[in-house]
């Protein structure tokens, strides 16, 4: 019985290749203020946290196709032992994760066993996952997620809730602590997907962002904040450390929580002054505050080897931003500061408003 | 009934001075429940077989069709009907707040609560029931000693000796108090036999040592320590000893006067009693000198706006309304255990321990932690183990799902010990007197099949 279920599993493998790269047509949604405002990210994360409550479970059709396949496969296998064999078989499909990826940032919290998840973007900018665990059952669960979510568009990935594990018929076979590990695995994979995509947008090219290097990046916070700024209402913090190539820390703030950055034109080094000058010249701001916060990132691997002036807070109020979405505003600023970005500027934390918004 | 008579000796509660007829009634009802066949065990009818009917929870199937085999007793024990009845009876017949009331119900509740205290004292041979402080559990009891005795007796430079095998509850409170007082914690390592190195302990003890915190039986290693000697050596240097008896009081005779322990803690839920209650034994003179731990009602004498005066022990350390029903339930558990007799329970469990260990050894590539049993070295009836190349959680999951065998996997509240042994986690099977050899057989069978299952997938 075990062999038949394995061979049926193999059949499914060969007929439908899950490595179907899809063109990335979908990132444009980031640029439309209205769709971003309704972005599924915050909704699905809210759904994830309340999935154990009485809300109905996510319909199978909403799952990525590969995951639907997996669900159907498990449902077709009735006997619990055979389900385990199925799970273990999936686990075997995971190639072992290289030790250098078994980092804290890749470790899944709340697992009784040790689980690591790595995510990177391939040439077509699809998120690809790798995972490993010292427990074979957990490895099987990780494999389900890796196969189900790899090479899928990020909007699809973040919509997935852990409800489907119920459909697998494994849930009652999994202890609560293991289930929590599963939930956390999924959340970590979703978080990594979002971060990779954001940072690839910034770099404007394909980026290998495997580890979340910076100690300063905490959990991904996605909050819906309604305020007068029509449009972007989410605050996303992501950072990544890359072996070679650009390091970019991106912080987008769309709400009024900017706090007191203080006017800090004094105490700026040469780069700081150049930033000020450029922005003043091109954007004729009503308010401009540029603050060097590189000291906060001292010791961050991306900073080592440079001579400071790597991280800045920028608060700018200008008419030039009227009619532009937040992302467009940030884009504008980045374009103006291209040269600096090429030469050691690592991160800009930007607050960009129109005079009427202040 | 003749076979029962010798057991009366261990049930020292039953003396002519005992005023409550209800105690006798309870005793005989416990007796009826537990001894329908002859109480003396024969080859075919072990103590496990005799007592199983008293534990309703054991007679069920899990996951539809699998008979439950409960082997997680070191985590918590099951409760006999007598204890369940005592709890129900408390709430049905005489629930009332204790110590202060005037009316009939409260007098009765107070009597029963204090009777339970006497039972605990008698069970561990404390000289006076005033040496028993009821707490929420053993963890709270240790914290009581740490914050009350520790904060007022430890100063910078003083040493507290613990072992690397201690439960977190015996380590963390002392870390917190050491931080506040500037005392140093010293940890005793294991010897080659994976048991605390007692020779090393003798070397570590010095005039700087103020306290030794040590387990009687290890919940992971199954080692049984010679507390009497350890107390002797400690007293020689002027150190006090706090004994963590959570795994010993439920399974063997523990005599605090014989051991001369200064403090001893145990939890009710590990000895067939309800959760929510435990106790601290402390020598009278020690408790009398200790400041309060938690403040509130019950533990005071007079309360003014700017200061209060405090009650004598044990009340001094029992703030607020206690877990009255639970204490009475613990008393009922002690009655039940005493009816059987702790020597008998201990003897049976030693048999089971040997059986478990020997059978476990037959599993290929298994590594059992703790000392090897021999003529001189006894192990408790539990085994923590790992099977090479198989994660203990995988084992425990399949044992549960496929075979209904309840075991535990993880660090068993002993992370330092696991780190010391160089493992992330281990699986553990732990027995109690209501387990049988058949339980062990089923466990071994299930474990064999589980190991084969995972080996196929390597």
Quick tags:
heterodimer; A: 358 residues; alpha/beta; two-stranded antiparallel ribbon; disordered N terminus; B: 458 residues; Aspartate Aminotransferase, domain 1; Aspartate Aminotransferase, domain 2; 2 domains; seven-stranded mixed β-sheet; four-stranded antiparallel β-sheet; 15 helices; 17 strands; PyrdxlP-dep_Trfase_major (chain B); Cys_dSase_SufS (chain B); pyridoxal phosphate (chain B); pyridoxal phosphate binding (chain B)
Describe this protein's structure.
The complex is a heterodimer of chains A (358) and B (458). Chain A has helices at residues 2-15, 33-37, 40-49, 65-76, 80-92, 136-149, 154-159, 164-167, 176-203, 270-283, 326-336, 338-342; strands at residues 115-121, 127-133, 236-239, 249-252, 287-292, 311-317, 347-353. In chain A, a hairpin with a 5-residue loop joins strand 1 and strand 2. Chain A starts with a helix and ends in a 5-residue tail after the last strand. Chain A is elongated. In chain A, the strands form two sheets. Chain A has a five-stranded mixed β-sheet. By secondary structure, chain A is α/β, with parallel strands linked by helices. Residues 1-53 and 205-265 of chain A have low confidence and may be disordered. The longest helix of chain A has 28 residues, at 176-203. With 458 residues, chain B is α/β, with parallel strands linked by helices. Chain B folds into two domains: 47-71 and 342-456, Aspartate Aminotransferase, domain 1 (Alpha-Beta Complex); 81-339, 3-Layer(aba) Sandwich (Aspartate Aminotransferase, domain 2), CATH 3.40.640.10. Chain B is built from 15 helices and 17 strands. Chain B has helices at 21-34, 47-51, 81-94, 104-123, 138-153, 168-181, 198-204, 227-236, 256-259, 284-289, 324-340, 342-361, 392-403, 415-421, 437-456, and strands spanning 61-62, 66-67, 69-70, 132-135, 159-163, 184-188, 209-215, 240-244, 263-267, 278-282, 300-303, 308-310, 366-368, 382-387, 405-406, 408-410, 426-430. A seven-stranded mixed β-sheet of chain B has the order 4-10-9-8-7-5-6, with helices on both faces. A four-stranded antiparallel β-sheet of chain B has the order 13-14-17-16, with helices on one face. The longest helix of chain B has 20 residues, at 104-123. Chains A and B meet through helix 5 and helix 6 of A and helix 13 of B.
């Amino acid at each position: 019985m075990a062999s038949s279920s394995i061979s049926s599993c193999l059949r499914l493998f060969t007929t439908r290749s899950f490595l179907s790269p899809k063109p990335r047509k979908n990132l444009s949604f980031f640029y439309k203020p209205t769709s971003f405002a309704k972005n599924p990210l915050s909704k699905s994360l809210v759904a994830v946290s309340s999935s154990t409550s009485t809300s109905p479970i996510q319909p199978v059709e909403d799952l990525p196709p590969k995951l639907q396949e997996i669900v159907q496969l498990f449902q077709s296998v009735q006997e619990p032992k055979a389900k385990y064999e199925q799970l273990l078989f999936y686990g075997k499909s995971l190639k072992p994760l290289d030790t250098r990826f078994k980092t804290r940032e890749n470790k899944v919290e709340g697992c009784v066993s040790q689980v690591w998840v790595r995510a990177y973007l391939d040439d077509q900018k699809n998120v690809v996952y790798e995972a490993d665990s010292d427990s074979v059952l957990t490895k099987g669960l990780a494999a389900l997620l890796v196969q189900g979510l790899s090479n899928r568009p990020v909007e699809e990935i973040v919509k997935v809730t852990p409800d489907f594990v119920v459909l697998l018929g494994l849930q009652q076979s999994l202890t609560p602590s293991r289930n929590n590990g599963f939930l956390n695995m999924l959340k970590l994979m979703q978080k990594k997907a979002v971060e990779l995509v954001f940072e690839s947008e910034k770099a404007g090219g394909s980026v290998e962002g495997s580890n979340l290097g910076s100690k300063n990046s905490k959990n991904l916070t996605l909050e819906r904040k309604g305020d007068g700024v029509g449009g972007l209402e989410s605050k996303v913090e992501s950072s990544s450390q890359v072996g070679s190539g650009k390091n970019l820390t991106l912080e987008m703030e769309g709400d009024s929580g900017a706090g007191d950055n203080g006017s800090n034109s004094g105490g700026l080094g040469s780069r700081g002054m150049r930033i000020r000058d450029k922005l003043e010249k091109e954007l004729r701001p009503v308010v401009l505050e540029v603050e060097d916060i590189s000291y906060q990132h001292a010791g961050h691997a991306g900073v080592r080897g440079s001579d400071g002036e790597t991280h800045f807070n920028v608060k700018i109020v200008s008419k030039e931003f009227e009619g532009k979405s937040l992302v467009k505003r940030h884009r504008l600023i980045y374009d103006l500061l291209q040269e600096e970005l090429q030469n050691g500027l690592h991160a800009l934390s930007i607050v960009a408003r129109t005079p009427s918004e202040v | 009934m003749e076979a029962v008579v010798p057991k009366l000796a261990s049930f020292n509660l039953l003396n002519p001075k005992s005023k409550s007829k209800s105690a006798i009634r309870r005793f005989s009802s416990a007796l009826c429940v537990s001894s329908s066949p002859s109480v003396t065990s024969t080859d075919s009818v072990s103590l496990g077989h005799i007592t199983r009917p008293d534990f309703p929870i054991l007679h069920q199937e899990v996951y539809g069709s699998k008979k439950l085999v409960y082997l997680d007793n070191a985590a918590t024990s099951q409760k006999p009907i007598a204890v369940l009845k005592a709890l129900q009876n408390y709430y049905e017949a005489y629930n009332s707040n204790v110590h202060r009331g005037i009316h009939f119900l409260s007098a009765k509740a107070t009597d029963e609560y204090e009777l339970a205290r006497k039972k605990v004292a008698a069970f561990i041979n404390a000289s006076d029931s005033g040496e028993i402080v009821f707490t929420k559990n053993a963890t709270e009891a240790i914290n009581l000693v740490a914050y009350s005795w520790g904060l007022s007796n430890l100063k910078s430079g003083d040493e507290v000796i613990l072992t690397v095998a201690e439960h977190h509850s015996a380590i963390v409170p002392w870390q917190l108090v050491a931080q506040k007082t500037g005392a140093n914690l010293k940890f005793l390592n294991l010897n080659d036999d994976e048991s605390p190195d007692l020779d090393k302990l003798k070397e570590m003890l010095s005039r700087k040592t103020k306290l030794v915190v040590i387990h009687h039986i290890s919940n992971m290693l199954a080692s049984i320590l010679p507390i009497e000697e350890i107390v002797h050596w400690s007293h020689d240097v002027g150190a006090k000893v706090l004994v963590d008896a959570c795994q010993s009081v439920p399974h063997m005779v523990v005599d605090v006067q014989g051991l001369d322990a200064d403090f001893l803690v145990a939890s009710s839920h590990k000895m067939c009693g309800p959760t929510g209650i435990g106790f601290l034994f402390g020598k009278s003179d020690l408790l009398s000198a200790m400041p309060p731990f938690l403040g509130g009602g019950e533990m005071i004498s007079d309360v003014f706006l700017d200061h209060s005066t405090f009650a004598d022990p044990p009340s001094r350390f029992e703030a607020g309304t206690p877990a009255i029903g639970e204490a009475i339930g613990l008393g009922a558990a002690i009655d039940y255990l005493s009816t059987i007799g702790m020597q008998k329970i201990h003897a049976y469990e030693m048999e089971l321990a040997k059986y478990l260990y020997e059978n476990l050894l037959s599993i290929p590539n298994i590594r059992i932690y703790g000392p090897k049993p021999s003529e001189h070295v006894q192990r408790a009836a539990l085994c923590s183990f790992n099977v090479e190349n198989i994660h203990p959680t995988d084992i425990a999951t399949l044992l549960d799902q496929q075979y209904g065998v309840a075991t535990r996997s993880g660090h068993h509240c002993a992370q330092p010990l696991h780190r010391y042994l160089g493992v992330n986690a281990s699986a553990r099977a732990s027995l109690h007197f209501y387990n049988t050899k058949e339980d062990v057989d089923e466990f071994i069978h299930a474990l064999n099949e589980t190991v084969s299952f995972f080996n196929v997938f390597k």
